[in-house]
Write a structure and sequence with these properties.
heterodimer; A: mainly beta; 3-stranded antiparallel sheet; 1 helix; globular; disordered N terminus; B: mainly beta; 22-stranded antiparallel barrel; 5-stranded mixed sheet; 4 helices; about 5% helix
Amino acid sequence: MKNIILLISLFIFFSCEEVIEIEVPSSEPKLIIDAIFEVYHNQTPVTANTVVKLRESTNYYDEEIPVITNVATVLLKDLTNDIDIIFEDNNSDGNFVPVNPFIPIENVDYELNVFYNEDLYQSQSKLVTTTEFSDVYQGNNTLFTGEEVEVNVSFIDDINVENYYLFDFSNNLFVPIEDRFFNGSTYNFSFFYQQDEIELPTDVIIKMSGVTKEYLTYFNVLISQSGQQAGGPFETIPSSLLGNIINTTNNENFPLGYFHISETDTYNLSLVELD
Amino acid sequence: MQKLIKILLFFFFTFSISAQEKHTISGTVYDKRGNETLIGATIYFSDLNVGTTTNEYGFYSITILEGTHNVSVSYLGFSEENRIIELNNKTSLDFYLSEASQTLDEVLIKTDIEKINIKSTQMSTNTLTSKSIKQIPVVLGESDIIKSIILLPGVTSAGEGASGFNVRGGSADQNLILLDEAIVFNSSHVFGFFSVFNPDVIKDVKLFKGGIPSKYGGRLSSVLDIYQKEGNNKDFKLTGGIGLISSRILAEGPLKKEKSSFLIGGRSSYAHLFLPLIDNNNEAYFYDLNTKVNYRVNKKNNVFLSAYFGKDVFGINNSFINKYGNAVTNLRWNHLFSDKLFSNLSLIYSDYFYGLILDFVGFEWDSGITNINFKYDFNHFLKDDLKLSYGVNNIYTKFNAGEIFPNREDSGIIPFKLTEKYANEFAIYLESDHDISDKFSLKYGFRFSNFSRLGQDKLNTYENDNPLIYNQQLQKYEPATPNGVLSYERSDILKSFNNFEPRLSFSYLLNFDTSFKASYNRMAQYLHLLSNTSSPTPLDIWVPSGTFIKPQILDQYAVGYFKRIKDGDFSLETELFYKDVKNRIDYINGANLVANNEIETVILNGKSRAYGLEFMLKKNEGKLRGWLAYTLSKSEQLTSGRNSSEPGINNGNWYNTPYDKTHDLSINTSYELSTRWKFNSNFLLQTGQPTNYPVGQYEFQGLNVPIYNDNLRNTDRLPTYHRLDLSATLTPTKNNYKDIQAEWVFGIYNIYNRKNAASIAFSRNTETSTNEAIKTSIFGIVPSITYNFKF
């Protein structure tokens, strides 16, 4: 038996992505409440980000995101002692800050109240604690293309509690994690910046926040729909993302966004070009 | 069981009035070249106007009047064999057919075959031979059974990069795929680009879309019954092909001449071998190995042992490695109890595994599904107008839902095993194929199935037995937290389901060229593929019905009109179908199915339905042949809230399933220019797949988020899909080596380079700070060359 092998490779593989024009429907604008508070417990003195951003949704291709300024009222109620913390929008940019800065504390239920367009929106949240970074460093591994920048993160998980973490690697890059598979152990993982996500050399602030299970679920869907890994045949059927804020006046007109308070650990890292 | 059969036999005998002596003639039909049995070959007695077809093992049996008869035996691609026989007593007669030579006068479809098909009660079925599959042009020149059946009416796929196929609006997990009677769980390589079936090893492929015989059960929408060759038991032969992506080789031959044969076929891709040359550390390859040994003990006994192994490996830089594959072994014994009673006993073991290593997070994931299957099937050729099929089937399955463990020493991952699940499915069936009169034939039967979900280590309990809560305030569904865990022994039965599945079909001959057929079948499916993406992903898990998940039940009604035109030069088939499915699962928003040990907390029970019209016109004669298949259909589902205060999904209204395709047109033609050149073409035109467009946008935590309308699920469509493929086959007439048959196949897939959308994603362009719609397409124009040889 003779073996005849003739292999002519005319292998031209055209698979691609292209931007196309597709008209999409429009919808009534919705109120967006971005109230994600972070308590930076590892800083001396302890500081907190307690900004409530009020925005409005708009049509998909519009370039401007409308902000909602002092036509709305924002108020935070401390439910243990019934003290009201008033917020105001100083620069008319839709970002409300407390008139008297404060640091949210553990075991206190805070109730967010936003009064806008004759509707009262409410939500409750409590500080979710977190552990701290054990170590953060820039590694020299790569993932798929060989051009990625690696950051390795390790921390010790608390075995007594079900922990949910949200990592923020700057430049709007997030990694949500739950401790299901590493409860109580020292866990480390690598995050890779894609070539187009970062320009070296640069400084980044890496944050680790303790979050609730519900917020983690919410954020997971948010990331999959918001373009970080959107698209493809493996995408789940997208749906409207309801947060934890309700419209107490008119249940049908629900707001989007989330109210959450987390304890956050920060780490400043300088990223450089490695060989 | 015995008594039941005796009662039925008595009942049937009272209808027969025999004036003249009748005798049984039986035997096997073979391919002369290698003694390969021929499935579905026609044996036709022209003077009596009766006939029959061979079963899956090439066996036929028919009882007819004694005397002198003209018998003709025919099969697609073979020369017809005509004989005059004297039937005076019980006769055993085998036939050996010769392959029709490759000449222009070759008549591929025989008159008699068509006549039998017109009269048969079997509808909603398509048969493909290995030869016809190899001639259909496909991407990268890789002949593919799954890509071929998509050209038939009523069959579509989710797209070029998607695995699986959809039959009559059914989902990809509703197809029963059998390879030599063994169930195959994952039918594709490389995430859906190629199927696991090596076309050289395949003898016969039959697709049942409706009117499913009682012998089959366990899946709702279709049965893809694939039979491998036995192997040439006269001479040693080598067949193979070399292509751009993969190559295949098949060796077959006798172990003992005319008594025993073997077959060993392999197929492997090799693109990965060149990757190190271009400094690329990735690996991507697949292989299939089909082996079979057959021993014909004596005229009444035949034993087969076959095994299939297939594996896919896809690795990127050692940081991401994905391996999966099927392993199936099968022992079968054909036994003739008499010339009227044929039996087949099968013992099958199958193992599907899936593994994933993600080094950068330090874990390894393994999952799989293993089963042992025992089947005993009987074909009882009672009288010339009555044939019975009956048997039993038992499948014991273990579901390894997933195991996670650290892949390196410094990984913080703690080993975790999702609860293993066990189930047993038992069925018994009885069906009768009855020619009531010259014009009217009836097939009636039933399948009775029992599914038992067996005890497992941990079964969650919930407050009020409610694993899913609807939060009225926040207006969303939330998983409930289990309030306890119970432990059971394997011998405990957690939940048991019994289903009576009637199967009925009839055919009415309007005249010898035309018939009208109708069928009804009920099917029960106990296994579900959990998937909430637009097409199945490799991470999808099969789960058995049980405490929290009910079996899917289908009722399908179909009517059809069949006509032979101009004495078989053309044939027309048209069918109307309606399917109703109970207990179709859908998922709450934000459901994460990966490694989820509490699936019951994210699912909602609903129903689905599909209906449509299928039309097929075939040209069977002449230099230009082919078919036109058109399907107009709708496939939708409804998931309402469990009570009036819950909205369900899509507000409890009907919504398109992710694979609904309103129009599906395929035109396949072949043109034989000369003995050297043959051309084939495919043209496909389909409605775009359902999708969801955003209706707005907002900003949250620096991310730009699209807004979708929950009450308009799957109402938008991807752009219409269409493409044209061409291929040319060159068979050199002058070969340097006398014994080698060879051919070159040149193909161009998608010749006008249409970038069909596989998906459309909406995302933000960070450079221009605007939102865009990005279309991803998989294949543009792709040329290919394949070299096929046969010794």
